Amino acid sequence: MKTLQDKRKTTAHRLAIVEGHLRKVRRMLDEGAYCIDIIHQSRAIQQALRKFDEQVLQHHLRTCVARDMRDTRGGAAEKTIAELMQVFDRL
Protein backbone atom coordinates (compact mmCIF):
# COMPACT_ATOMS: atom_id res chain seq x y z
CA MET A 1 0.00 0.00 0.00
CA LYS A 2 1.30 3.44 -0.92
CA THR A 3 2.13 5.87 1.85
CA LEU A 4 0.85 9.43 1.89
CA GLN A 5 4.31 10.61 0.78
CA ASP A 6 4.27 8.17 -2.17
CA LYS A 7 0.84 9.42 -3.22
CA ARG A 8 2.00 13.03 -3.05
CA LYS A 9 5.01 12.21 -5.21
CA THR A 10 2.78 10.47 -7.77
CA THR A 11 0.38 13.42 -7.84
CA ALA A 12 3.25 15.93 -8.09
CA HIS A 13 4.73 13.90 -10.95
CA ARG A 14 1.44 14.05 -12.84
CA LEU A 15 1.38 17.83 -12.38
CA ALA A 16 4.95 18.05 -13.67
CA ILE A 17 3.81 16.21 -16.81
CA VAL A 18 1.07 18.83 -17.28
CA GLU A 19 3.64 21.60 -16.91
CA GLY A 20 5.83 19.97 -19.55
CA HIS A 21 2.91 19.69 -21.97
CA LEU A 22 1.99 23.32 -21.34
CA ARG A 23 5.53 24.51 -22.03
CA LYS A 24 5.47 22.52 -25.26
CA VAL A 25 2.21 24.17 -26.34
CA ARG A 26 3.64 27.63 -25.65
CA ARG A 27 6.71 26.77 -27.69
CA MET A 28 4.55 25.44 -30.49
CA LEU A 29 2.52 28.66 -30.54
CA ASP A 30 5.68 30.78 -30.60
CA GLU A 31 7.05 28.72 -33.48
CA GLY A 32 3.79 28.81 -35.46
CA ALA A 33 3.14 25.07 -35.29
CA TYR A 34 0.26 23.44 -37.13
CA CYS A 35 -3.02 24.15 -35.30
CA ILE A 36 -4.11 20.51 -35.14
CA ASP A 37 -0.82 19.56 -33.50
CA ILE A 38 -1.39 22.28 -30.90
CA ILE A 39 -4.89 20.96 -30.26
CA HIS A 40 -3.52 17.44 -29.75
CA GLN A 41 -1.15 18.77 -27.10
CA SER A 42 -3.94 20.79 -25.49
CA ARG A 43 -6.10 17.67 -25.27
CA ALA A 44 -3.20 15.83 -23.61
CA ILE A 45 -3.02 18.62 -21.00
CA GLN A 46 -6.74 18.38 -20.34
CA GLN A 47 -6.58 14.60 -19.95
CA ALA A 48 -3.61 14.84 -17.60
CA LEU A 49 -5.47 17.44 -15.50
CA ARG A 50 -8.51 15.15 -15.33
CA LYS A 51 -6.30 12.35 -14.02
CA PHE A 52 -4.74 14.78 -11.54
CA ASP A 53 -8.21 15.80 -10.31
CA GLU A 54 -9.18 12.14 -9.96
CA GLN A 55 -6.13 11.41 -7.82
CA VAL A 56 -6.71 14.41 -5.57
CA LEU A 57 -10.43 13.65 -5.24
CA GLN A 58 -9.75 10.00 -4.44
CA HIS A 59 -7.32 11.01 -1.70
CA HIS A 60 -9.81 13.56 -0.33
CA LEU A 61 -12.60 10.98 -0.23
CA ARG A 62 -10.45 8.39 1.51
CA THR A 63 -9.10 10.78 4.12
CA CYS A 64 -11.01 13.99 4.81
CA VAL A 65 -14.47 12.83 3.75
CA ALA A 66 -14.15 9.48 5.51
CA ARG A 67 -13.06 11.28 8.70
CA ASP A 68 -15.93 13.77 8.49
CA MET A 69 -18.50 11.02 7.89
CA ARG A 70 -17.38 9.31 11.12
CA ASP A 71 -17.68 12.56 13.08
CA THR A 72 -21.23 12.53 14.45
CA ARG A 73 -21.02 15.89 16.19
CA GLY A 74 -20.56 19.38 14.88
CA GLY A 75 -22.14 18.92 11.44
CA ALA A 76 -18.89 17.96 9.70
CA ALA A 77 -20.64 15.42 7.47
CA GLU A 78 -23.21 17.91 6.23
CA LYS A 79 -20.54 20.54 5.59
CA THR A 80 -18.42 18.06 3.64
CA ILE A 81 -21.36 16.88 1.54
CA ALA A 82 -22.26 20.51 0.71
CA GLU A 83 -18.64 21.22 -0.22
CA LEU A 84 -18.50 18.24 -2.57
CA MET A 85 -21.81 19.19 -4.17
CA GLN A 86 -20.47 22.69 -4.88
CA VAL A 87 -17.47 21.22 -6.65
CA PHE A 88 -19.64 19.02 -8.85
CA ASP A 89 -22.11 21.83 -9.55
CA ARG A 90 -19.26 23.75 -11.17
CA LEU A 91 -18.44 20.97 -13.64
In brief:
This protein is mostly helical and 91 residues long.
Description of the structure:
The protein is mostly helical. The chain has a single domain (4-89), classed as Metal-sensitive repressor, helix protomer (Methane Monooxygenase Hydroxylase, Chain G, domain 1), CATH 1.20.58.1000. The protein is built from three helices and no strands. It has helices at residues 4-30, 35-70, 76-89. The chain is elongated, with a radius of gyration of 18 Å.
Short key terms for the protein model shown above:
91 residues, mainly alpha, Methane Monooxygenase Hydroxylase, Chain G, domain 1, 85% helix
CATH class label: Mainly Alpha
Number of helices: 3
Binned strand content: under 5%
Low-pLDDT stretches: none
Radius of gyration: 18 Å
Distance between the termini: 31 Å
**Biggest beta-sheet profile:** none
Could you report the average pLDDT, rounded to the nearest whole number?
Answer: 89
Q: What's the CATH architecture name?
A: Up-down Bundle
Helix content: over 70%
CATH topology: Methane Monooxygenase Hydroxylase, Chain G, domain 1
Shape: elongated
Q: Structural class, please?
A: mainly alpha
Record field, number of beta strands: 0
CATH superfamily: Metal-sensitive repressor, helix protomer
